[in-house]
Amino acid sequence: MDLGKNFASHYVQVILDTVIKISGREFTIDNGSREIKVDIINMPYNPLDDKSYQKIKVDDFVQITDSIDVIFFLEKGKYG
Fold first, then answer.
1. Which of 6, 8, 65, 70 is deepest in the core (most CB within 10 A)?
2. Is 3 within 8 Å of 70 (Cβ atoms)?
3. 20 close to 8: Cβ distance less than 8 angstroms
4. Is the pTM of this model over 0.85?
């Protein structure tokens, strides 16, 4: 897939939404148009365990800030 030399392959995205599901080391939010799974493996603490001060549970409103691959947002077959 060639998106061109000037097309950024990563960018910082901020998503604010409600947690709808927790499974293992992932939680899922629903932004209306799609569900997004968030893997917490690279976080400095585990907000899904019983040990952390800050915990995430279903129906919590969360803010996610991270570098996201642009491919995540592209429709299959639209480019390339």
1. 70
2. yes
3. no
4. no
